[in-house]
Write a structure and sequence with these properties.
By secondary structure, this protein is an alpha+beta fold. The chain has a single domain, classed as Alpha-Beta Plaits (2-Layer Sandwich), CATH 3.30.70.560. A hairpin with a 4-residue loop joins β6 and β7. It is globular.
Length: 189
């Protein structure tokens, strides 16, 4: 009698999309909020946080009568579609205390913005990729350059080229504290 043939284990193939996400906070323990957001993103299924930029203290835009922001950029790889990733970012923002509705340029416990998703271009009511203000904001361009110099898929210029002509004249101050990438573990501590 022959032994039954055991099929090889099925492995799930992860389609890794490279995504840059802007992170920011100007309410409460700003660095702690950024760390919590990066940790939550790192826990998402089929997602890996690959790099986190330095964190910069920046002036608020619009309503300037509020605390300075801590801003940074992270690179992650994920199998989530752009809309699925946007939904996950919104869930994380809400879990960390951001209200469902808010006014533009208001203080933020946490802000997660998809800046670039591969070389994808999407402009819908809920999502714009690349982020429509990317090329106008030094608080995004400079941290992005800490980890990569990707090509803007619409403007066909690198981030360094965009920074050269960026109209934003604000001053960024790099803080010495860092946000750490926490790896997924199989066993709870």
């Amino acid at each position: 009698m022959q032994k039954p043939i055991t099929p090889p284990p099925v492995t799930k193939i992860m389609l890794a999309h490279k995504v840059f996400i802007g992170i920011g906070s100007n309410v409460g323990e700003r660095l702690g909020h950024l760390q919590d957001a990066v940790s939550q993103l790192a826990l998402l299924d089929e997602t890996s946080v690959c790099a986190v930029s330095s964190i910069y203290m920046t002036e608020p835009i619009g309503d300037t009568e509020q605390n300075r922001f801590y801003n940074g950029v992270l690179l992650l790889e994920t199998s989530f579609s752009p809309e699925e990733l946007r939904q996950q970012c919104k869930i994380i923002e809400q879990e960390l205390g951001r209200p469902d509705t808010y006014s533009r340029w208001s203080p933020r416990v946490i802000d997660l913005d998809i800046l670039l998703y591969d070389s994808t271009c999407i402009h819908s009511e809920t999502l714009s990729i690349p982020h429509r203000e990317l090329h106008r904001r030094k608080f995004v361009l400079i941290p992005l350059l800490d980890i990569a110099n990707p090509l803007h898929p619409v403007m066909q210029q690198t981030i360094l080229q965009l920074l050269k002509y960026c109209p934003d004249q604000s001053v960024l101050v790099r803080i010495k504290e860092r946000v750490e990438i926490k790896k997924k573990t199989d066993s709870p501590l």
